[in-house]
Amino acid sequence: MAVLGRLSRLSRLVGAELHRTFARHGLDAASFDVLATLRRSPPPHRLTPTELMRDAMVTSGAVTQRLDRLEARGLVTRTPSEQDRRAVTVALTNEGMALVEQVLPDHVATEHRLLAALPPTDRAALAGLLRDLLESLGDTR
After folding, report:
1. Which residue in 76, 12, 19 sits closest to 49, CA to CA?
2. Where are the beta strands (DSSP E) in the chain?
3. Distance between CA atoms of residues 32 and 42, nearest Å
4. Which one of 23, 37, 51, 58 has the fewest beta carbons within 10 angstroms of its own beta carbon?
């Protein structure tokens, strides 16, 4: 119980810190997740909603809702696929790319601050243990 209790408390604390970090840039964690996922994809930073859904491990409705909000803000575009007119591709706009590039240093600084109490070897060990636990529960991202 001690491990799960600590993981639960840690999740709340880290979530609150990340919420503050993203809020400073007018985003929430879900929106940042979509923008960062597109940023990590090879240029021209385009993915299908299905690919975004698979990466974020959320329902198609959740991806659609996120994309609607981001598109309304001019951060992503949805265009019909050149290969299949029934499908769309989602791409970062210049504004979306600029926002991700603005948020990333703040996000990295938050991560460093949150993990500063652990030496690099402990961070690596913790990352490995958490990965093993996630994989044992079926999360293979």
Report:
1. 76
2. 46-47, 76-80, 88-92
3. 17
4. 23
> Rounded to whole angstroms, how far apart are CA atoms 75 and 37?
13
Residuewise pLDDT in 10s, the chain (141 residues):
899 999 999 999 999 999 999 999 999 999 999 999 999 999 999 999 989 988 876 788 889 999 999 999 999 999 997 788 788 999 999 999 999 999 999 999 999 999 999 999 999 999 999 999 999 998 876
In the numeric block, which tokens belong to residue 21? 């970090």
> Which residue has 């999740």 as its token pair?
11
**What CA–CA distances, in Å, run from 45 to 31, 36, 77, 78?**
16, 10, 11, 12
> Residue 61: phi, psi to the nearest 5?
-60, -40
The domains found in the chain, sorted by start residue, are 2-136 (1.10.10.10)
What's this model's pTM, rounded to 2 decimal places?
0.87
Written as six digits, the tokens of 137 are: 């529960």
Compute φ and ψ for 90, nearest 5 degrees.
-110, 130
Strand order in the sheet with 76-80: 46-47, 88-92, 76-80
Q: How far is CA 53 from the centre of its chain?
A: 11
